[in-house]
Amino acid sequence: MTPCDVAAFIGVIDVRMLALFWDSPAEDVDLLLELIGKLHHIVAIK
Q1: Dist CA 14 CA 39 (whole Å)
Q2: Which superkingdom, per the lineage (predicted)?
Q3: What is the largest CA-CA distance in the chain?
Q4: Do residues 14 and 21 touch, judged by C-beta distance below 8 A?
Q5: What's residue 2's pLDDT?
Q6: Could you give the CA distance from residue 20 to residue 36 in angstroms, rounded to a whole number?
Q7: Where are the domains of the chain?
């Protein structure tokens, strides 16, 4: 997998997760964004 493939894959995860949380309370969205941030950070390290 190239870095571009990884970025595209994470992009898909982000969009799907955000769609799931779209109608959720603000706290849930904050938690989701934090999770996505950690995911990006983990991938950036590898």
Answers
A1: 10
A2: Bacteria
A3: 36
A4: no
A5: 75
A6: 13
A7: 3-45
| Dist. CA 26–CA 10, nearest whole Å | 22
- In 3-state terms, what secondary structure has residue 28? helix
Which two three-digit tokens encode residue 21? 């949380």
pLDDT at 42: 67
Distance (Å, rounded) from C-alpha 20 to C-alpha 18? 5
CA distance 33 to 39: 10
Angstrom distance (rounded) from CA 42 to CA 25: 26
Query: pLDDT by residue (tens digit) across 8-44?
Result: 777 676 666 666 666 656 676 677 778 777 877 766 6
* Collapsed DSSP state (helix, strand, coil) of residue 17: helix
The pLDDT of residue 33 is 77
